[in-house]
Amino acid sequence: MTVQLTYFGIHLAFLLPPILILGRLAIRRDRAWWGVRPLSGLGVMIALAIVYTTPFTNRLIPVGVWWYGEGAVLATVWHTPLEEYLFFALQPILTALWLFQVRPSADRSLAIPRTHRLLGVAGGVAIAVVGWVLLGDTATYYLGWLFLWAGPVLALQWGFGSTYLWAIRRSLLVAVAVPTLYLWLVDRIAIELGVWVISDTYTTGHALLGLPIEEALFFLVTNLFVVQGITMYVWVLDRIGGVSAWTSASPRVPTSSDDR
Question: Which residues neighbour 125 within 8 Å (Cβ) at sequence distance 6 or greater?
Fold first, then answer.
């Protein structure tokens, strides 16, 4: 199938504009996160996204869980298009720049009850176990791999900071929901245009407003990774540095010590 809009065109039309807008807002707004701590956290998330997602896509694409329209991609490395690797970086940037506007934070100690840590780890492990079970059915193959892939990361994040994340849950919801809804729309448009095609064989057939439930969960989970990861990263650096995250609510005054 020949498509009018390519995968790179999706980046130019739907990802680059909001990134530029949100980036400008983050730089100019006093109340937005900016500086060494959040930006280095974003750098870590980009590196982890590329390293952790590359085996995932290169496992599922050859099986035929999804594929790309004729002429939709420039080239592939391993089994994954170059544009997909670029997306591994662009999605965290987009989500993080929105997160910087929301700036969820609470003045909480790094100390977390052991029970909370165990429950957080157990939640992530349970998701991975469900994924392992779902791999046994062709119709839940994509869903199974998604859960199996997401479970370990969620176990680490929830095990480390579940109490803190719960304390800021309302702002986290906003930070996750907005980019997720936007990327659902972009994904739905790309599928409709044939830029990529999701297999009927390896999916459940359930959809959310026309978007396969597996795709919807993918963007929800990956945005959760980014938001939770950067938020906890800044929280840890704030506590180690002895600076409360609440102090960033005051107007930003450029000084040599302003690494926020």
Answer: 151, 155
Expressed as residue numbers, the domain containing 159 is: 7-242
pLDDT tens for 148-196 read 999 999 999 999 999 999 999 999 999 999 999 999 999 999 999 999 9
- Domain for residue 121, yes or no? yes
Separation of CA 145 from chain center:
17
Cα–Cα distance for residue pair 175/101, rounded to 1 Å? 9
Mean pLDDT of the chain: 92
Q: What separation in angstroms does the CA of 52 have from each of 57, 58, 126, 152?
A: 10, 11, 20, 11
Length of the chain: 260
pLDDT computed for residue 241 by the predictor: 81
Q: Is residue 222 over pLDDT 90?
A: yes
Res 243: pLDDT: 54
Strand partners, 68: 196
Q: How many structural domains are present in the chain?
A: 1
Q: How far is residue 5 from each of residues 20, 69, 80, 192, measured CA to CA in Å?
A: 21, 10, 18, 11
CA–CA–CA angle 91, 129, 188 (5° rounding): 35
Pairing of strands 80-81, 76-77: antiparallel
Q: Note if the pTM is more than 0.85.
A: yes
Q: What mean pLDDT is predicted for residues 194-201?
A: 97
- For residue 252, being part of any structural domain is answered with no
Q: Is residue 106, in this structure, part of any structural domain at all? A: yes
- Name residues whose C-beta falls within 8 Å of residue 129's C-beta, 6 or more positions apart in sequence: 151
Is residue 151 within 8 Å of residue 221, measured between CB atoms? no
Instruction: Look at residue 260 and tell me if it is in a domain.
Output: no
| DSSP secondary structure letter of residue 70 | B
